[in-house]
Design brief:
By secondary structure, this protein is of the alpha/beta class. The chain is 41% helix and 15% strand. α18 (369-373) links the parallel β10 (353-359) and β11 (378-382).
């Protein structure tokens, strides 16, 4: 079975270039353990979710660590290190006092690692991020495509997008992903609603409750549901606070927790010239639409959905987010909107390069207001028909 991911080469080659700790961060079930065991089959593996392993690591004693490791250990994987009371301390001891071992750690949340380990691991680590599958990874793992690619970003950077007939059922694949998302488990078990509902419970509650990150479980769930209904819309923190009867500081803290747990990510406004440009409120998108749809318990097909435009927008923006990281394209990602209502869904910027991306499900006219204000910018319009143009020879217009 194909399991290759975009990040494979960077992870596999990490210790060829670096001695520092390899930290692989990502949400529960995105494939971190599978990837590391595949790329480092001879590494010694410790799972912190195992009580004995956790207790031994919680000793923070180098002699204990040496005692539990096989003599010939050269690579060590510590899985779910965020479950330790001080993961940075454990990693630091191994890195500093057992220098012959290449240390690899994973975390389903960056909460503990960021909050407790940043100082102690300064100069000792490299962070990598693993997300739910990209569209290309899904096609490759399903055997539909022969190679991984960054075609969506390449299309955005190109000069012209054409609608093409593909050698596979593009719409059929896209619709399935818009409803059920891109968690690796669903490659072989498509349409598994129960898996996604259980994932909501484990991602939102098991991890966050174990980390003692949330006190108000129902309030946190209701906040995420409100965000799920507001995909693609400006999010007003005060309004969320009022609707949830939750103070603003708690709403902000929970939003930050959801970001650090790789459930949602913000898109901030692009504001350079006009005073009428929105400059404060963010939009929030979900890393995975299956998780988002499970939150609101809506797995209806596209023709029965009122939110089809919003979920396609979420799909495109999350795809470009993942590709931007994996491919090291290094674009800043924002949206643009004026107080009069003119809007561009996505603005990509790097140095002097500015690209506006409109995401449309129909034949709406492109918004010219952005180009009028930023005449040096490029513009692209992405639709369900053209976002993944085929470059295969047997494709035809």
């Amino acid at each position: 079975m194909r399991q290759d991911r975009h990040i494979d080469k960077a992870i596999a080659g990490h210790f060829d270039q670096n001695k520092e700790i390899l930290i692989l961060l990502g949400a529960r079930q995105v494939g971190k353990t599978t990837l590391l065991k595949r790329l480092f089959p001879n590494a010694h593996y410790l799972l912190v979710d195992n009580e004995t392993v956790k207790n031994n690591l919680e000793r923070y004693d180098v002699s204990m660590y040496k005692q539990i490791l096989p003599t010939q250990t050269t690579k060590l994987i510590i899985d779910e290190i965020h479950l330790l009371s001080d993961p940075g301390r454990a990693a630091k001891i191994i890195y500093d006092q057992i220098p012959d071992i290449n240390l690899i750690v994973t975390g389903s949340s960056s909460l503990q690692i960021k909050n407790r380990a940043t100082e102690s691991l300064a100069g000792r680590k490299f962070d990598y991020h693993l997300y739910p599958l990209t569209f290309s990874e899904y096609l490759y793992q399903k055997g539909i495509e022969e190679n991984l690619n960054y075609r969506l970003m390449e299309n955005v950077l190109g000069s012209k997008l054409l609608e093409k007939v593909h050698t596979f059922d593009l719409w059929g694949v896209l619709e399935k992903i818009l409803i059920y998302g891109l968690y690796p488990h669903l490659v072989d078990q498509p349409n598994n609603q129960e898996y996604l509902k259980n994932l909501v419970d484990s991602v939102i509650f098991k991890d966050l409750v174990e980390l003692q990150a949330i006190e108000n479980r129902s309030g946190a769930l209701n906040l995420l549901r409100l965000l799920a209904y507001q995909v693609g819309s400006l999010v007003n923190i005060s309004e969320l606070s009022n609707r949830l009867n939750m103070n603003i500081a708690t709403v902000r803290r929970y939003l930050d927790i959801f970001e650090q747990s790789f459930i949602i990510f913000p898109l901030k406004p692009y504001s350079k010239i006009g005073r009428d440009e929105i400059g404060k409120m963010n939009k929030y998108y979900f890393y995975d639409l299956g998780l988002r749809n499970a939150l609101i318990e809506n797995f209806n097909p596209s023709q029965l959905r009122q939110d089809f435009g919003a979920i396609f927008e979420n799909f495109i923006i999350s795809e470009l987010f993942k590709i931007n990281v994996y491919g090291k394209f290094d674009f800043k990602m924002n949206f643009w909107r004026t107080k009069q209502g003119s809007e561009i869904d996505l603005v990509l910027t790097k140095n002097e390069e500015v690209i506006g991306v409109e995401i449309k499900t129909g034949s709406e006219r492109a918004n010219q207001a952005f180009l009028n204000r930023y005449p040096k910018a490029k513009m692209q319009t992405l639709t369900p028909s053209n976002f993944y143009n085929s470059i295969q020879e047997n494709s035809r217009l």
